[in-house]
Amino acid sequence: MFKNTFSFDGRIRRTEYCISFIIMLIFRVSIELFTESNEPAIIMVLLVLLIPMMWFTLAQGAKRCHDLGKSGWWVIVPFYGLWLLFAEGEAGQNRYGSNPKLVSDGISAG
Fold it and tell me: How confident is the model at residue 110, as a pLDDT?
């Protein structure tokens, strides 16, 4: 789990996507809480951290789209990320790679 987190290649399971979603949600709430203080230094640090967190979120979403056999571009559709939390991935290998469920369970996907 959590290999190549900033890469847009491959597929991930719902579990990894859900954990990624929770991490980003916690980060977003933290930003909201800390930016209320109006401290320029804190706001600047959080904005700098926001860029890699957004990349992380988009990459994880794209890989989850790949698990469904869809293009990673679907991740930019509003509320599609919520669907990704519940949708079952394609069984077996697809054009984006091996089934992450089989790979993580130690079963050969070939």
Answer: 45
101: pLDDT strictly greater than 90: no
Instruction: Return d(Cα 13, Cα 26) in angstroms, integer.
Output: 20
Rounded CA-CA distance 31/55 in Å is: 16
Cα dihedral sign for 57, 45, 3, 29?
negative
How many other C-beta atoms can be found within 10 angstroms of the C-beta atom of residue 65? 26
CB 59 within 8 A of CB 6: yes
CA–CA distance, 56 with 101 (Å, rounded to integer):
21
DSSP codes joined into one string, 5-74: TT---S---HHHHHHHHHHHHHHHHHHHHHHTT--HHHHHHHHHHHHHHHHHHHHHHHHHHHHTT--GGG
Whether 69 and 94 have beta carbons less than 8 Å apart is answered as yes
